């Protein structure tokens, strides 16, 4: 697999006493130091390493079966990888803002006129519910807990 090729040729971290784990480059094997990967900016190198390792694994399989003795398939893969890396470095295209469509002169037809009004009346606030939400401040009756928990009937009492 390509993940094993990333670490191929990596130095062991035996003589790194006193250094943190960040000082040791993880997955920095032979492919990491190849010119194809090193020509990419540092923030894209690990991503480039993964792509290059995958292409190396495919090239090794092609070479094993000797299906392409001229090596043209390998050169084609290298061109694909380099084009991909160049595309990564390009700035992203600015998104264009679409203009709003021209409004129509005539008003739109509204649906559900009478039906919507009936539903509003049915589920709307009645006068009794409005009175329960009103509070009186002049006289204090009942316990504090009832009022705090919403068990009070407001102005209905």
Quick synopsis:
The chain is built from seven helices and no strands. It is mainly α and 157 residues long. Helix 3 (45-65) packs antiparallel against helix 4 (72-89).
Key phrases:
about 160 residues, mainly alpha
Task: Describe the overall structure.
By secondary structure, this protein is an all-alpha fold. The protein is built from 7 helices and no strands. Helix 3 runs antiparallel to helix 4. It starts with a helix and ends in a 9-residue tail after the last helix. The mean pLDDT is 79.
The largest β sheet comes out as: none
The percent range for strand residues is: under 5%
Based on CA inertia axes, which overall geometry fits?
Answer: elongated
Overall mean pLDDT score?
A: 79
Which regions have little confidence, pLDDT < 50, spanning 5+ residues? none
Q: Quick one: how many beta strands? A: 0
Instruction: Please tally the helical runs, counting DSSP H or I stretches of 4 or more residues.
Output: 7
- The secondary-structure element order is HHHHHHH
Radius of gyration from the CA trace? 36 Å
Distance, first to last CA: 80 Å
Proportion of helical residues = 40-55%
Structural class, from helix and strand content?
mainly alpha
Secondary structure: elements and pairs:
Elements: H1 2-6, H2 35-38, H3 45-65, H4 72-89, H5 113-123, H6 127-133, H7 144-148
């Amino acid at each position: 697999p390509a993940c094993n090729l990333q670490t191929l040729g990596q130095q062991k971290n035996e003589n790194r006493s006193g250094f943190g784990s960040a000082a040791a480059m993880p997955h920095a094997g032979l492919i990491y130091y190849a010119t194809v990967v090193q020509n990419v900016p540092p923030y894209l190198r690990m991503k480039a390493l993964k792509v290059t390792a995958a292409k190396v694994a495919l090239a090794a399989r092609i070479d094993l079966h000797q299906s392409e003795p001229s090596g043209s398939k390998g050169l084609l893969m290298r061109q694909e990888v380099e084009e991909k890396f160049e595309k990564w470095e390009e700035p992203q295209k600015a998104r264009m803002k679409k203009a709003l469509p021209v409004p129509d002169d005539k008003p739109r037809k509204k649906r559900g006129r009478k039906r919507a009004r009936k539903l509003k009346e049915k589920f709307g606030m009645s006068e009794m519910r409005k009175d329960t939400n009103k509070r009186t401040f002049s006289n204090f009756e009942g316990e504090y807990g009832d009022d705090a928990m919403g068990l009070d009937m407001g102005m209905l009492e």
